[in-house]
Amino acid sequence: MLYFAYGSNLNHFQMKRRCKDSIFLKKINLKDFKLTFRSKYRAADIEPKKNSLVPGGLFKISKSDEKKLDVYEDFPILYKKYYFYHYGKKVMTYAMVNKTPFKFPTERYLNIVKRGYKDCNLDEKYLKKGLSGS
To answer: Is the pLDDT of residue 40 over 80?
Structure first.
């Protein structure tokens, strides 16, 4: 199955540790969404926003990887699954269930995400925008 990472799972080392079968395919953009950070975990989330985009990493994951991600993402309590199509192929990602107010992430978490942006060769301007809370 295809999985779209946009937060700490962009980090290749972390993703491999969580999902041993995962293979990074390429970077893609999720259109009409914006990146934000929220909840008591101060974690990454996406929300609909016209003419905006969230860059991320497209990974191929196994069924057992998906089960591990479900546990890690606290599915279906904290995150729910969101599906979209990329060139006719179904892609799964996670979005938070409760859209609580913006909370700036911890330095540790943010460093993992920044490393992930480098690993996937993503434009950090979208991360900076997400961190502005606007």
So the answer is: yes
Residue with tokens 């293979």: 23
Strand order in the sheet with 89-96: 23-38, 43-60, 2-5, 89-96, 79-86
Block residue for tokens 């909840």: 39
pTM above 0.85, yes or no: yes
Q: Are 10 and 56 in contact (CB under 8 A)?
A: yes
For the chain, how are helix, strand and coil distributed in percent, rounded to 5? 30, 40, 30
Superfamily of domain 2-126: Gamma-glutamyl cyclotransferase-like (3.10.490.10)
